[in-house]
Amino acid sequence: DGGITQSPKYLFRKEGQNVTLSCEQNLNHDAMYWYRQDPGQGLRLIYYSQIVNDFQKGDIAEGYSVSREKKESFPLTVTSAQKNPTAFYLCASSISRGGSPLHFGNGTRLTVT
Amino acid sequence: DAKTTQPPSMDCAEGRAANLPCNHSTISGNEYVYWYRQIHSQGPQYIIHGLKNNETNEMASLIITEDRKSSTLILPHATLRDTAVYYCIVRVVGAAAGNKLTFGGGTRVLVKP
Fold first, then answer.
1. Which chain A residue has its CA at the smallest distance from B33's CA?
2. Closest to A42 (Cβ–Cβ): which among B42, B43, B106?
3. Between chain A and chain B, how many beta carbons pairs sit less than 8 Å apart?
């Protein structure tokens, strides 16, 4: 089955540690996205990439970093500079044609204590 | 992107049609209306989108008013599995804009037996 895989589903880290969230897609989509969701809130865009080796900041990029070395993969690193890292992180992908719907993974719930 | 306004919550009876309203009074001529839903602790799922004509697919129907300032998502026969948060999003479609979406708070729909 084609889809987006995010792993792990739950992740626990100590404050001050960097952590990398995995996102892999086998849909052959050019574009990939990272969103953050806090309890009872909508999604906020962290970073997006429309093509390999290129990415842009979203609305809340501070404290995060990404890479896009392969079409299938778009890992997100939550750095120690992110002040409130505990959240639900969602990865999505789409074809590049304007207006194409986004396909989402099932998220990684990160807890930092 | 134009701002949308949705009721924070609504209930509907199982087997009945669910009509979810969305106001987007500042929508511009090149903005589409998208609907996604998010079942608890999962990634959002694309439902439908449209520009000015009414649209229907296997999941739902989208009715857009003639002035395009509001729309209604219709789930024709709601089931308990339709309990979710439903997001209405308006988005400019074009190569430069990309496909990134801005999510608001959505409508929390509870389908009751």
1. A99
2. B106
3. 66
Q: Is residue A89 a contact partner of residue A35, using CB atoms and an 8 Å limit?
A: yes
Beta bridge partners of A19: A78
Q: What is the pLDDT of residues B24-79, one digit of tens each?
A: 999 888 888 999 999 988 999 999 999 998 999 999 999 999 999 999 999 999 99
Q: What is the rounded CA–CA span in Å between residue B41 and residue A39?
A: 10
Instruction: Check pLDDT > 90 for residue A33.
Output: yes
Interatomic CA distance for residues B25 and B98, integer angstroms: 23
Best residue in B6, B32, B99 for a mutation probing chain A (most A CBs within 10 Å): B99
What is the tens place of the pLDDT at every residue in A8-27? 999 999 999 999 999 999 99
List the structure tokens of A38: 């806090």
Contacts of A47 (CB under 8 A, 6+ apart): A33, A34, A55, A56, A57, A58, A61, A64, A66, A76
Burial of A62 (0-12, 13-18, 19+ CB in 10 A): exposed
Q: Measured between alpha carbons, how far apart are the two ends of chain A, in Å? A: 36
Chain A hits for B1, CB-CB cut-off 8 Å, are: none
Chain B CA closest to residue A101: B46
What is the distance between the alpha carbons of residues B98 and A21, in angstroms, rounded to a whole number? 23
Residues of A in contact with B35 (CB under 8 A): none
